[in-house]
Amino acid sequence: MKHLRRISLCLVVVLVLSVGSAMAAAVPEQSGRLQVTGNAVITAAPDLARITLGVETSSTSAEEAVSENAQRMDSVLGALRALGIEQSAMTTSGYNVYSYDNTFGRSTPAEEITATYHVQNGITITTENLDEVGLIVDTAVKAGANQVRNVTFDIADKQDMQLQALQVAIEQALTKANVMAQSAGETIGGIVSIDEEYGTYVAKSEAMPMMAVGFDGGAQTSISPGEIEVTARVTMEFWF
Questions:
Q1: pTM of the prediction?
Q2: Which domains does the chain have, with CATH numbers?
């Protein structure tokens, strides 16, 4: 059904653009001009979630920091697989090793500089089970994750919404043009041009500071997905 709807929306846009091209070629030289804008906002419930979390370890030994990080991440991945998440749904989002120096006894004979090594290993989990997002976060944290960066809700089929928004924006522009022309005692003759000024698609993101996650083993983390918003704006010029 989504496939058929997408074809229908595409045909609407193509037909409007085709008519506009044909009309532009036949615009009378002494005709008047009318320019209007059409705006649309389409909202829908998300059907996809991406959870970005990770493990950070530190040690005065780079080897120990890397080894501990690998062990903890293996534990996290194993716990998530046990939850039913496929390996293909878990991808590495970043891996970083860095160090900084601590100076003890500065400007004294006993001054000592010690390097501390940090290892950060991040993964992104993609799931269509939105009701389990909180459970996934809690499972990962209990298994060793100590960074939960954000949860992003999205829609797998974005194009369908984008075309719907474009169609609604064009329909609004057509309606406005007809109302304005009729109110002025004129009749729209045809379309001179159509310009898509902008369209935005915003996936909903929930910030998840590490300390806000249930480390104490209490109630399950609750996350509400909200809605995804798509906007479109077109400018249309008509002759009369």
A1: 0.71
A2: 1-6+26-47+156-240 (3.30.110.170), 48-154 (3.30.70.2970)
